[in-house]
Amino acid sequence: MSLNYQKSGHGSPVILLHGLFGSLENLNGIKRALEANHLVVSVDLPDHGQSPHSDAFSYTEYAQAILSLMDELDLHNVAIVGHSMGGKVAMTMALTHPERVSGLVVADIAPVSYPDRHSGIIDALKSVDLNSLQRRSDADKQLAESIREPGVRQFLLKSLQKTDSGWCWQFNLSLLDRAYASITAWPDIDKVYDGPVLFIKGGRSDYLLPEHKGQIGRLFKHSQGHIIPDAGHWLHAEKPQQFNKIVADFLA
To answer: Annotated catalytic residue: which of 84, 102, 159, 205?
Structure first.
C-alpha cells in the first residue's frame, strides 16, 4: 500500500499522523511551525484522504504502512506526532519498531481501549444520500439533523469529494463502521518503548485521564505530560500557537 503524503522543510525528519475521519490537512498548522527546522512528512493514513482503502483495520497494519513509506523515502529514524487515532498508530510504531522512532508526541489519546464515542457520527454519515447532493451544503443540511455542532460537520465535510461519478466520502466509511470496535481498542503489545515521549492533553478533553498514567508509564518509560488549558480534543486546532510551541520545543 503506497500512502499519499506531502513533504516539506529541511532538517531532522518528523512524520505527522491525523485522527479518525481526518486527512493530512488537519495538521497543516503544526507542519508550517516545524518545517523551518525539520523535514516534515504529512501522511494520509490508510482508508483516509487520498490514501488507498483496505479490507481490514489493525493498528499494526497501519503502522506497517507508515514503515513502508519511511523505507520508500529512505528515512531510517523519525520523530512522530500523532493526534487521536494517529497517536495510537504512532505509539504502535514506537512499541513494535523502536529502532525506527527517535521520539513521540501523542496528542490527546492514551494507549487504552475507549468506549463508543462515534456511532452517532457514523450513523449520520451513512444517512447522507450522496446521490441526491447538488452541492456540499446539501450534505451539511442532512448531517445537521443528527450532528448539531457546526464545527464537527465542517470537519467531516472536508472529506466529501465530488468526482466524475458523483459525490463520495474520501474515508473508507464502510470499513470504519465495520471495524469501529478495533479502532476504539488498544492492541495487545507486550513491549516497552524507551525513547522520549510527550503526551499533550486538552484541558477540557476526557481522552487522557489520571487513571491512564499507570498504563502510559508501563509502556513508555520516559514519558512526560503537558496540559493545554481551555482546549478540547482538537487542541492543535483550538490552541495552535501553544500546541505548536510545545511540540517544537520538545522536538528541539
So the answer is: 84
